[in-house]
Amino acid sequence: MKFAIMLGATLLGIALGYLPSITKPRPRWWRMLALGSVTVVVVLALLPPTAGTVTDAVIASRADSTAVVPVLLRSTLQPGAELSSIVASDARDQRVVITVILGPTIDPSLLPIDQPVILYLQRYGQDAQFVAQQVGQTDPLITLPYIMGLEERARIIFFHVPMSWVASIAYILGMIYAVAYLRTRKREYDTLSASAARIATLYAILATVTGAIWAKFNWGMFWNWDPRQTSIFLLLLVYGAYFLLRSAVTDPTRRASLSAAYSIIAAPTVPFLIYILPRLIPGLHPGSADDVNAGPLLSPQSDAINTVKQMIFGGSLFSFTLIFFWLVSIDVRTTVFSLRKL
Amino acid sequence: MSEQLCSLFESCSMMTFLSTNATYVVLICALTVWAGIAAYLWRIEQRLTQLEQSPSEHTP
User: Fold this and answer.
1) Which residues does A245 contact at the CB level (< 8 Å), separation at least 6?
2) A62-65 long-range CB contacts below 8 Å, 24 or more apart?
3) What pLDDT score was predicted for residue A191?
4) How many structural domains compose chain B?
5) Which residue of A has its CA nearest to B56?
6) Would you place residue B1 in the very low, low, confident or very high pLDDT band (cuts 50, 70, 90)?
7) How many CB atoms lie within 10 A of CB A207?
8) Do the domain assignments include residue B9?
9) What distance in Å separates the CA atoms of residue A156 and residue A214, rounded to the nearest whole number?
10) What is the DSSP string of A58-109?
């Protein structure tokens, strides 16, 4: 299911990217779809609250007794004003019943009864006893799963991952156009190959920068020379050399064949540097060799990404693929226009 | 030098705010993505304007 959503979203994005040929202007419906889906993704990535289960709260408290975990609960007893604690069940599994002591900042009369509500719980002694520190949203429409150690920071998956994902597809696309150029010697394929690599590099830089900002708050430093950071740095160097090569050769035909050949050599390093190398070496990034699984996206047994999150992630893959094709289209048309003017 | 900069950042109340309200870290990441795309659009706009203003051999 997870793989079907991710693959389907990417393939749909690529198919729509080619619906009007890349060298043609984007129709109005296409532009509205691209901008609309990005807007929906940004809203869905940032607005839904994070809410875990009682099990999440128990596991988190075993690692750190002061951990405060948002849990979606349903209170089963009417709390009187004098009551300082309520009995509540896990909203997702009614069999799990816990006692919640209301913290000093919570007004018991304002607590919703028999409605799912997010309470920020801290364990108090036993496993089934918690102190509620704060009241969150009542009856949230959708919630994101609680991941220990990542919490709200897990939302970066909707912006950071599509960047490197689309970048790797784009570099491969650039290589396919390079092969097409060498076979047909049509100038158009050289332009397409260079444009795809250019926007792919923009995406790879954005993946690096968003990752570094996130790393500051999750790992403590902007740059840790984590295997993942090192490998994308190498990738940027490899493609930095590609653009250096292109700008160094002035003869257009020679530039086209040289950069096509370089692109064919460079592209096979992309899956190696993005998908293989960081999984072979122990590191901080999710999915490293010492992680419990292959990361929330590729691991078949991981529950770190629930159906809601999968759908939003699929939407973000789709919308950032569309934006990629839009940018490539603008880039190609500008280059074609400049060549015609010369 | 970088350590000095880091400690400068640590003492900043903005950093404390961001580490306790992590959703804003993700918001900054989303804005970074937007800034990157916007910077690219800015550049391509300049390139096009330059092309449009340059005299063409084909026009009389």
Assistant:
1) A258, A259, A262
2) A63/A148, A65/A123
3) 95
4) 1
5) A341
6) very low
7) 27
8) no
9) 8
10) HHHHHH-TT--EEEEEEE-S---TT--EEEEEESS-TT-EEEEEEPTT--GG
- Tell me how close the Cα of B36 comes to any Cα of chain A, in angstroms: 7
Residues of chain B positioned with their CB less than 8 A from the CB of A214:
25-26, 29
CATH of the domain at A59: 2.40.50.140
pTM: predicted TM-score of the whole model, two decimal places: 0.89
Same domain, A226 and A180: yes
Closest residue on chain A to B16 (Cα): A217
* Residues A12 and A100 both lie in one domain: no
Spans of chain A, pLDDT less than 70: 77-83, 127, 293-294, 300-304
Tell me, yes or no, whether A105 and A74 share the same domain: yes
Half-sphere exposure of A315 (CA within 13 A, CB side): 18
- Encode pLDDT of A135-168 as tens digits: 888 888 889 888 887 888 889 999 999 999 999 9
Enclosing domain of residue B28: 22-51
DSSP state of A300: S
**What is the rounded CA–CA span in Å between residue A91 and residue A114?**
10
